[in-house]
Amino acid sequence: VYQDRALGLPPLNRTLARRMMEQTKIYEALQGVRGREPVDLDALETLLVRFSQLVVEQPRVKEIDVNPLLARPGDDGLLALDARVVLHPYTKDDDELPTPAIRPYPRQYIGTHPMGDGVEITIRPIRPEDEPKLVTFHERLSERSVYLRYANLMKLEQRVAHERLARICFIDYDREMALVAERPVEEDDDQIIGVGRLTKQPGRNEAEFAMLVIDEYQGEGIGTELLRRLVEVGETEGLDRITADILQQNHAMQRVCEKLGFDLVQGDGREMVKAVKSLSG
């Protein structure tokens, strides 16, 4: 197969690595054709992710090329037959080295939090592969929770539409930060039980937050912890202030804001209250 290529910006995650593979002509053959066994696509996916991480973590790498890469069925089916690495000159200062076009996954914002029943949940930035978990998350929300969050009864099929969730999960961490609260489930993947989002406002050094916790875990401090961490993110990112528009009847969210030092003022409309917290000075 000639002139077969796919482009991606590092760092890749597993979802983006698989999409790159699917864009190539050779992908069909990798899955196995004419009775041949497929190669280990999960291993190839992992290789692409780690290769992209190498590029991001080693800024002095100017060019790196693995060619050819042998891919064959079996546990040890991936083998780099040749590779070439070009470094930036040692005379170039660190601050002169290029930086990635896409900000790497912000692992510094990963943490844990104990719940009242003793279960420890993970709070971390959202990832593109969280889309299926968010579908389940939205399926477990009551109409009241949906209304208090969106100020209207957005239908489930709208909330879980692929185009919408793809935008929510695949974000530019320089422009917004979304944290998910994840609770371990026996014999299954962890389930997302809360989501908090901080979105920078164009032309201003401030961000707007939004919060949503599934009904069965409301009132257990998850929203408070998510907002506390979003405030920490805002401080770390150098924002001047954080705001939110909250429905008048959403007293629980207003109490959480007051607990964390937000001022509540009358919003633009009668139905809304604006929460404001200054971070500068």
Short description:
By secondary structure, this protein is of the alpha+beta class.
Q: Which spans have pLDDT < 50 for at least 5 consecutive residues?
A: none
Averaged pLDDT, please? Answer: 91
Q: Globular, elongated, flat, extended or rod-shaped: what is the shape?
A: globular
Strand content: 25-35%
What is the level-2 CATH architecture name of the largest domain?
A: 3-Layer(aba) Sandwich
Give the count of helical stretches: 9
CATH class of the largest domain: Alpha Beta
The helix fraction, in percent, is 25-40%
Spatial order of the strands in the main sheet?
5-6-7-8-9-10-12-11
User: Could you say how many structural domains there are in total?
Assistant: 2
Question: Rg from C-alpha positions?
Answer: 23 Å
* Class inferred from helices and paired strands: alpha+beta
Instruction: Give the terminus-to-terminus CA distance.
Output: 60 Å
Largest sheet: 8 strands, mixed
CATH level-four homologous superfamily name of the largest domain: Gcn5-related N-acetyltransferase (GNAT)
The number of distinct β-strands equals 12
Question: How do the SSEs run, as a string of H and E?
Answer: HHHEEEEEEHHHHEEEHEHEE
CATH third-tier fold name of the largest domain: Aminopeptidase
